[in-house]
């Protein structure tokens, strides 16, 4: 019997929690058992006999905090991730347009690919043919931009096209929220949209300086109103872009949404790509206690999951409005390595990424967050040779604690 490599102990606000990041098990320790946390947190040790009473031992074993001596957790996790990579699930992102109705102060909108294209019939026909050829077991679609809601009909046609292949397909939307009015929400829900990611950069005064319309007007009031009414019908992830020198009280900002179970607020470094490559973002990232846990909000069970970024999986595609296919969201502004929208195009695009494996990176392979993190952003690792951790330790502990609160709410 030995301790798992993936045990955590988090003590906050008088609550002592143990959590296993592989199985997702989470227990609250009472005073009598509080000492278990320190023992379990040491990876791979054989706790001396008699330390756990019989019923605790059984519970800890069945929850994966304690494992058999000959059980190789790492290879088991690697096998799981490898099979998830070849699963029949399709992760589809459709860039409706690169155009945007905002002019955010930190955004490079317009300095990447300059084009006015909007996803249209030809692209959707190719996409449908590709999906039919691939025949995925299920499809999860993300509508992306630019601002996808500039072209609502293109959004609906895209979702309709996906549904011809997977009638139960669910979708989400990445939007600035300005056009997400009541009618739009209702229609999106009819097409299977279950969540939206919206950016609100803190309180009104901060947000309105950073996220403006083209004529420089503030957008906070409209975005907040739309966010609250959208959350009556779908999950809303509020992303707050942060920099270490930003002056506002994030905790108070977040508190205003605390009672709404459909709204989840998280911080991320200010970036113009979604994984923190901008100078402003990456420099400041680790100095901020951050908590970038977007997708997990849908699942209260925090166990080993998808192998990090979906680009390493067999069926992952980003469809560009000009009718090309890439894999990574960072390639939307730089699609130099693009492929035709077809089954063979998709499989060719897989070649470069399939070699990436967090188990061959020492820091990741030894990391207690690996089952959830999946090794960070492959694109950044391949460009820099350094793992781009999705979480800081403190951020991850906050994440565990918040998850505990959500489970016991
Ligand atoms: S490789 Fe990185 S930037 Fe590209 S989609 Fe994955 S996480 Fe995002
Ligand atoms: S990227 Fe960082 S947090 Fe993620 S598994 Fe690797 S070392 Fe851990």
Characteristic key phrases:
409 residues, alpha/beta, TIM Barrel, 2 domains, 8-stranded mixed beta sheet, 3-stranded antiparallel beta sheet, 15 helices, 16% strand, binds iron/sulfur cluster
What would you say this structure looks like, in words?
This protein is an alpha/beta fold and 409 residues long. The protein folds into two domains: 2-71; 88-354, TIM Barrel (Alpha-Beta Barrel), CATH 3.20.20.70. Helices cover 34% and strands 16% of the residues. The chain has 15 helices and 13 strands. It has helices spanning 36-40, 54-62, 73-85, 121-134, 152-165, 182-190, 204-210, 220-230, 250-255, 279-285, 343-354, 362-365, 370-373, 378-384, 393-408, and strands at residues 2-3, 7-12, 15-20, 26-28, 66-67, 89-95, 138-144, 170-175, 193-199, 235-242, 263-269, 316-319, 325-326. The strands form three sheets. An eight-stranded mixed beta sheet has the order 11-10-9-8-7-6-12-13. Strands 2-3-4 form a three-stranded antiparallel beta sheet. Strands 1-5 form a two-stranded antiparallel sheet. Helix 4 (121-134) runs parallel beside helix 5 (152-165). The protein is globular, with a radius of gyration of 22 Å. The model is unreliable at 276-300 (pLDDT under 50). The structure holds iron/sulfur cluster (2 copies). One iron/sulfur cluster binds next to helix 14.
SSE arrangement:
Elements: E1 2-3, E2 7-12, E3 15-20, E4 26-28, H1 36-40, H2 54-62, E5 66-67, H3 73-85, E6 89-95, H4 121-134, E7 138-144, H5 152-165, E8 170-175, H6 182-190, E9 193-199, H7 204-210, H8 220-230, E10 235-242, H9 250-255, E11 263-269, H10 279-285, E12 316-319, E13 325-326, H11 343-354, H12 362-365, H13 370-373, H14 378-384, H15 393-408
